Amino acid sequence: MRVHRVVVLVLTAVQPLELGLPSQLFDPRTGLPYQVDLCAWRPGLVATTAGFEVKVRHGLDALDTADTVVVPGFAPHDRALPRDVTDALAHAHDRGTRMLSICTGAFALAAAGVLDGRRATTHWRYADDLAAAYPAVQVDRDVLYVDEKDVLTSAGIASGIDLCLHVVRRDHGVGAANQLARIVVAAPHRDGGQAQYIERPVLPGRGTRFADTLTWARGNLHERLTVGQLARHAGMSERTLARRFTAELGTTPLRWLIAARIDLACQILENTDCGVEELAHCTGLGTADNLRTHFRRLVGTTPATYRRTFGNPG
């Protein structure tokens, strides 16, 4: 498989955690065919917002051979960037490079004209600033990330993880993304008010209060499981389950159960030619209409479209 080159643009006063995210999540040691390089306006030491410096070996010419460019957040977010930087970003985009931003990195893409006429997001604190400074950008304040095919933007720091996992899912499928999420001990999916293209339920690791119950539930999704059955398996009342479940996992038992069924549906769609009626039955969703309703709500598309996009052509 051809190695996909990811180049991270390190701007002065870069946010170090956001700089580390793509380096970690696209690390070839995870078994995925990525290569990560850092570049800067000028090679050398680049200051971070945390008081230390990062040594960067490559200049802007590294963007010329990138398959994907990632721009982490920087401060202040509304400062003017060197013309060389914005020109290099615009050139990379013009030649077909996939462009990603994390948090305030969206301001760099906007300054380069990459976001003109597109939906985009950034940290909620700075969304109004982005909309005011770049009126050609359709700023979405309520999402974790926005996928515009060749241009993807994400909100605050943690949503950079969501975005990178989404990119891996798009490049290599749900199995690879879920495995990567386990490696970095991150949630493959986070609920929220956003309409993401793909969402995944959280499966806690060992030692988590509900790990055994959720593992059991995942193994029995073909059954008509109820919240009451989850509560009995966990050895508590439905009311206690609901309270503790929401506090620990950030979602309700019923929402988790539905999302788990949709996650299973996605896996089946990726790997089989199972019909929608059979799919509804084996995921415990009952009817094709019920499946389609929940699938569109969580995934943002239809089962048929998902299969065309992510299904195994073999």
Automatic annotation (TrEMBL):
<feature type="domain" description="HTH araC/xylS-type">
    <location>
        <begin position="211"/>
        <end position="309"/>
    </location>
</feature>
<dbReference type="InterPro" id="IPR029062">
    <property type="entry name" value="Class_I_gatase-like"/>
</dbReference>
<dbReference type="GO" id="GO:0003700">
    <property type="term" value="F:DNA-binding transcription factor activity"/>
</dbReference>
<dbReference type="InterPro" id="IPR018062">
    <property type="entry name" value="HTH_AraC-typ_CS"/>
</dbReference>
<dbReference type="InterPro" id="IPR009057">
    <property type="entry name" value="Homeodomain-like_sf"/>
</dbReference>
<dbReference type="Pfam" id="PF01965">
    <property type="entry name" value="DJ-1_PfpI"/>
</dbReference>
<dbReference type="GO" id="GO:0043565">
    <property type="term" value="F:sequence-specific DNA binding"/>
</dbReference>
<keyword id="KW-0238">DNA-binding</keyword>
<dbReference type="InterPro" id="IPR018060">
    <property type="entry name" value="HTH_AraC"/>
</dbReference>
<dbReference type="InterPro" id="IPR002818">
    <property type="entry name" value="DJ-1/PfpI"/>
</dbReference>
<dbReference type="Pfam" id="PF12833">
    <property type="entry name" value="HTH_18"/>
</dbReference>
<dbReference type="InterPro" id="IPR052158">
    <property type="entry name" value="INH-QAR"/>
</dbReference>
<protein>
    <submittedName>
        <fullName>Transcriptional regulator GlxA family with amidase domain</fullName>
    </submittedName>
</protein>
<keyword id="KW-0804">Transcription</keyword>
<keyword id="KW-0805">Transcription regulation</keyword>
